[in-house]
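Subject: Re: docking follow-up (coenzyme A)

Dear J.,

Thanks for your patience while I sorted out the input files. As discussed at Tuesday's group meeting, I've set up the holo structure prediction with coenzyme A included as the bound ligand rather than trying to dock it afterwards. The sequence and the ligand SMILES I used are pasted below, so you can double-check that they match what you have on your end before we go further.
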Amino acid sequence: MTATISRAEVTDAVEITALARLTFTETFGPMYPPSDLAAFLEAKYQPEIFAADIADPSQALFKAVLNGAIVGYAQAGPCGLPHADVTPACGELRRLYVKRGLQGAGIGNRLLDAALAWLEKPGRKLWVGVWSGNLGAQKLYANRGFAKVGDYKFIVGNTADEEFILRRG
Ligand SMILES: CC(C)(COP(=O)(O)OP(=O)(O)OC[C@H]1O[C@@H](n2cnc3c(N)ncnc32)[C@H](O)[C@@H]1OP(=O)(O)O)[C@@H](O)C(=O)NCCC(=O)NCCS
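The structure tokens for the complex came back this morning:
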């Protein structure tokens, strides 16, 4: 069965929050002390925050639905990355996650297609931040024409991870 990709609605916020917490923990959880991870998720991954993001016309959240359940999501919007060349006109792929057991089946590529198509405007520079050790995601973005232009520290509790800043355009 093929996943269906579409724009998320505000009523999806609770389910997307649960998926976002799960996928962040599956991907990055082992890198942080449990208390730091829990505090980070509590602060950043709340239904109210996702509901506001979904309702915000300057952002778009795409969901992948399989057998009635949301199994992946991509979040796009204005660029918030700390780089000197970022302007209010820039766009950012803010998050891209697929549930672990369903990775490698093309869902991430299709979510990325939807998010990039929504972000693209003539002359608009697109940005993405990616963990320096996430070689799989770096390859995915390189395939779409993104190249490294900087780096920064992504803070979770007392841990500061090195993140690469990639840009296209
Ligand atoms: C990155 C992610 C969204 C890709 O989704 P997916 O459904 O697994 O990806 P697809 O099946 O569409 O395509 C796989 C592509 O992803 C890349 N990729 C992602 N993770 C990979 C891994 N662990 N190993 C190898 N390739 C990987 C490959 O370049 C592959 O490219 P291809 O198009 O040449 O085959 C998914 O693996 C995921 O959720 N990973 C954990 C979260 C994460 O790292 N998110 C990115 C944060 S910046």
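A couple of observations from a first look. Strands lie at 4-7, 60-66, 69-78, 91-98, 126-131, 147-156, 159-168. The first helix runs from residue 13 to 28.

Let me know if you'd like me to rerun anything.

Best regards,
T.
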